[in-house]
Amino acid sequence: MSEGIRKYFQGDRVIWAVVIVLSIFSLLAVYSSTGTLAYRKMGGNTLYFLIRHGLILGIGILIIFVTHMIPYKYYFRLSQLFLYLVVPLLFLTLLIGTSLNQAARWLTLPGLGITIQTSDFAKLALIMYTARMLSLKQDRIKSYREAFIPLIIPIVLVCMLILPANLSTSLILFATCMVLMFIGRVRIRHLLAFAGIGVLAIGLFITATMLLDKEGRVGTWRHRVEQFIQPDGEEGYQVEQAKIAIATGGLFGVKPGKSVQRNFLPHPYSDFIYAIIIEEYGLIFGGIPIMLAYLILLFRAGVIVRKANRTFPAFLAIGLTLSIVIQAVVNMGVAVNLFPVTGQNLPMVSMGGSSLLFTGVSLGIILSVSRGVEKELEEMENIEDSTESDGQEA
Predict the structure, then answer these.
(1) Are 157 and 255 within one domain?
(2) Residue 134: inside a domain, yes or no?
């Protein structure tokens, strides 16, 4: 990266490279996988969805650039405000949100017609707030009353507000926060005890509602679990088509633009885009590079944590990275039938709106932390060099 570009695109260069690689895969895969959708809805104009997605992706990269230029200390202050905003937004979404498949997940902005999936904002806000609280409570982090309770209450509240409309997002966010609390040195017995109570409560809730309610979201959850155990119906059909795509792709793929299963998979451009990538590019040039991109992102977040001399930026970077990587693992796991169908996008790859933009915010904040940590290390080195030179002169 030349000095001129380096001046503006700061932070971890490897993370920037991951963003570029995922963006290229995204454009190619979305263009290829939206052919059937374009034929059905846009009269065969295959460029429509490519241009639309390219614009959203471009805005996402612009968001990464803008957020990475903001010093991470401002995110410490914003984290509390974001949490206060997201709780009423989640309430509003449950009450008046736009519904799809009996799930109210989106808020439509009045007069603009733009929809925002509030759970995407909630993920960002809760992880930022958890990182803030962990950093503030480090001197008494082992205390149940002074540390664990103030941390777990907002986590439970936000996850419970997301759960009725989006169980998978709620579980992923909860798991991410629990891992972040473990990294933040919260007592393991507190985490295990709460996790046990949570599993028991969710089990009782699902059992009771499955006995009483055969329809609605609970019915959808039940159907997806049953389809995962014994594939049949629509979910079973999706998984079978994804398996065919992966098997057809093999090691080297059928070449870009030649996917057949995109004509059969219901959502080849979002939920099952990973299967389409493997079909066209194979495991060698598609499946493995995508997996490696997310693993490299996680590794680089670990490098940032190791370099950081303050707790908040370290927790913030690793928390946001875990959120992205765990979601990616779930999406890829669904494609290969390791998990039930969840509807989770592949971050920075799947066609999407607010999910892609909020992923951009998360990546921008991670790069902001990287930029800040590098600057602090340079300042420390300059101080040490200055001290050594003063000592030599004396």
Answers:
(1) no
(2) yes
When divided into structural domains, the chain yields a total of 2
> Tens of pLDDT along 6-22?
667 788 899 999 999 99
Which parts of the chain sit beneath pLDDT 50? none
Give the pLDDT score at 10.
Answer: 84
**In the numeric block, which tokens belong to residue 94?**
């449950």
* Residue 339 confidence (pLDDT): 84
User: Is the same domain home to 104 and 195?
Assistant: yes
Q: Could you tell me what percent of the chain has a pLDDT over 70?
A: 83
Domain that holds residue 103: 83-230
Domain closes at, from 230, 263, 298: 230
Report CA Rg, the chain.
Answer: 22
Q: What is the structure's pLDDT at 292?
A: 97
Residues 276 and 193 in one domain: no
- Which tokens sit at 393? 């002169």
Strand partners, 106: 98, 117
What are phi and psi for residue 250, nearest 5 degrees?
A: 60, -140
